[in-house]
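Troubleshooting: if your tokenizer reports a length mismatch, compare your output against this known-good record of 232 residues.
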Amino acid sequence: MIGAALGKRFERLLLFTAPISLAAIVVCLVAIASSRQDERVEARCLLQLANMLHANDGQLSKLWKIAGKDEIRLISYQFELKKTWIDASSLNDCYDVGVSELEKDQYKKQPSILAELLSSRAESLRATPLSVYGISLPKNATLNLYVTKLTVELELLTRVLQVLLLPVLLMWLASLYATRYRESISVARAASLEEVFPHIIKEGLNKSPIKLVDASRRVLDAQDASEPAGGV
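Known-good structure output:
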């Protein structure tokens, strides 16, 4: 019987709407907070500056040793730092943050030590709780697996969800389409309406048209008899 299972698989698939939507909302909020929150943006730029110092440590250390404590040579060394930073930050929006850091007195430190200080500051800034549109997000997420509780960093969890959401969404939408398409074909091939709608139509099909008309007349007669008789 087609009607007995019609729409059941489609309804089961619709139950996945809630968890998929929840995962998508969490990923969206974390992505927005990570890219727009001032502390996160500054931390990302400081890490990029530290990586630049590590990558050019050999050349910059030589210039730093030559400069020593001579103020004029230190200004030349600072210029080389900014020049190297311009090349490293030409494709992003971290230029201003890096320049402001290199204009402080800390630029006089050895490049490797300066890189460690910047990395430490970046980590402290990354420890700031995420907040977006007035919504504060926890640093860690707790997952309950049977009797075991797992604590996972929220940003790591969102990265995993970003990878998994695309194939899951594609498979879910494909299943919805295939299920509805198969049900439509089954309905089109049905020999009668009774196969498609067995619950209500079956009662009407078991009665002849004459019996249905007589039943309707009896209902109307009973309604007329129950009304109070009018007249003078």
